[in-house]
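User: What would this chain look like folded?
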Amino acid sequence: MRGVMKVGRGVGLVELREIPDPTPGPGQVLIRVSAAAICGTDLHIYHDEHPYWPPLVLGHEFAGTIAAMGEEVKEYVLGDRVVSETSTGSCGVCSLCQSGNRHICADKRALGIGRDGAFAPYVLLPAALLHRIPNGLTVQEAALCEPTAIAVHAVVERARVQPGESVVILGPGPIGLLCLQVARASGARPIVVSGTAASGAIRLPAARALGADVVVNIAEDNLVDQVMAVTDGLGADVVIEASGAPAAIALLPRLVRRLGRICQVGVVGRPTVDFPWDLALFKGAEVQFSFSSRHTSWLTALRLLAARQVLAKPLLTVEVPLERWHEAFEAQDRGRAVKALLIPADSG
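Assistant: Here's the prediction, encoded as structure tokens.
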């Protein structure tokens, strides 16, 4: 089979290469990939801005069906439609793994980052990481379960958004738009989503269609003024940074209320950024970071998707065969797509 591989360290160095067909061992399943979505992390790896362990097949947002099973797999049958958590390599015995936080285990080598991922016709995974796709969800929609779990972890489990709280989301990319929907499902109001001029054609209109109360193009309007106008001059209860842009990060303490909460989920791709520390300190703001997703994040994400409280379909704006991966990468990297899907030729 052929997979989209990061073949070495450096910018670019991504190729469609012939690789051996995987075979499941004990406790493993072989999944026929039906659809795989491009993540911002895949783009960061392409640009050499994120940790990774080449050579490897990229891709960790996907859905598929079980094509083969190794010994000791009892809970699934051939043909089951599944998605998978990404915490491959987690040791299972450290205090983090034992407390339900295997996503942050030091030994973790995530799918498509530290081991072969889903930009290929087949992917091999431990059965323990799988979840069945709820009836009524297409495989294309289910491919966005992983980023939905990321949004759930950030909004619900880290930022702890409550009904009636005001929320500002910086960055209307896939994660930002999913955070918007999870915040709405949590009862937050009002919700403000901001983006740059590059987001004006597709992503900001998507934020409006998905229920943002205020949408701000920062090339045209002052974001701080807009946030103060809808929060009686107090600032937002919660500010979620989903763009990874240093300029957006520097703005966070000006947007949050006193004793409010800041949650950074966007990957920056550089070792340091400027941050107005004293302003956050004098406001008594809670500053936190949200990385990856827990098992509980996936359970909630699947429920939200099944109940249509989070809509994946509006985010799926480009779909191409796996062989045209470069078109999908470029479309998403340049903001011409919200989320791009790759479809292997023999996905079935």
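The longest strand covers residues 28-37. If you want, I can go into more detail on any region.
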